[in-house]
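Known limitations

Files may contain more than one protein. Parsers should not assume a single record per file. Below, a two-record file is shown to illustrate correct handling: read the sequence, read the token line, then continue until end of file.
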Amino acid sequence: MLKRIKKHILVLSLIISLGSLLSACKPAEPKLDVNAQKTGFVLTAEVQASMTAAARPTATETPIPEPSATATVLPSNTPILLPTKTTEGTTPATGVDRAQIIAQEPEDNTRFAPGETFTVTWTLENTGTSTWTTQYYIEYASGESLGAEDKVYIWLPVSPETSLALTVNMVAPSTPGNKISYWKMYNASGDAFYDFNITITVGE
């Protein structure tokens, strides 16, 4: 029993000695340098701030382009309409052409000597919807010409519901009897739209 106790004491002593040796061999824990830690923290914060600023996109002002004057280019096949000047008396007729003689001088069946000259005045009223231009005219059509001009033009424009007097110089024929001269009125396109006549008596 005593030997066994001694043996245990020896083992325990060896364990204690071994623990002392291990404790002696363990390196001392380094002391913390508080100032160094503070400096490191500051440098780390500055580096992180620099990296964040570099990664963040910089706000740049985008200039607003000023509107520039642009010319409108028409297609090559677009007609360019220029103002036109209308000359009085050449305007094409529009509407309906109608006429009526409201007065005649001399009256029908007036007697003239053979070869006697006289003047006939017809007062024509525009009873249509078109305006007569100076391209409208009256013209001898058939019967006795009575020495008159073949064609007599309107001498000023005549609007609807107004009238105009036309004068024609004539000569009584040499043979006695009743003589009828037939006339027509034409528009600017040469279309006849009114027939009229005059009758005279030729006697000794």
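...continuing to the second record:
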Amino acid sequence: MRNNIVFWFLFGLFLLGSSFAEAGMLIVQQSPSGEELTWACEGAKFRMGNKEVYTVMDADSQRIYTVMVKEREYTVSTAAEVRRQMEEMQKQLSRLKTLEKKFKGLGKLFGGKKEEKPQDSSSLGPKVTYKPTGDKKHIAGYKALKVLQLEDGHPVAELWVSEALAKDIAQACDYSKLEAMIKAMTPEGQQMAVYEKGRPRVGPFKGEGISGFPVKVVDMAQGKEILRLIKAEKKRLSSSYFKVPEGFKRLEVGKSGASPF
């Protein structure tokens, strides 16, 4: 569940603009199980999660806090530490690939199967595109456009996106600071930016004339809704909302299963 929360948080960030005002934004979404997921931002601070666990990203200090409510514990990582962890994971993956090649070579030497040619990068996965349908409706008070997500031309998901909500969120969030934080977290050679050449990145809809924040997502293969906006409020959020509660115990990242997210 923690990974799903982070995914939809970042997905939403990629669809937004750059200006911000002196007010916060609080969004409540619902999962298929009925669980409420909260997404909030104000200035350079961002928070997403549920009643059991939530993550706070402070773009001013470039720190990431993950709070486990029931356990009364939390972890904290800097953007630089996250980058080092990701770089170490890349190195380990590279070592595994090297070992795999050596074992394949030994298998060939002793009469094993002939080593297969590496797949072309274009065949490693389906081509994902997005198609607006023209259908519109109001969800939680926001006008939304229906967009189909296609894989190799076949529809796999139904997304309802709201441009109005995207604009409201953009006015509450300082994306210039968030962009700097994300760049500091990202290893060289990888791309995870909110901006491209000074302009807002439009995420998976880039180049297709579509923008907006997802207010409803339907998995067409399963025929069920997997995310829906319940409410969105413009409001001043207390500073404590973006802090670790007093009395919580700090865990070291990498111990007891703790991680930045």
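Parsers that stop after the first record will miss the second one. For reference, the second record is described as follows. Residues 25 and 168 are 8 Å apart (CA to CA).
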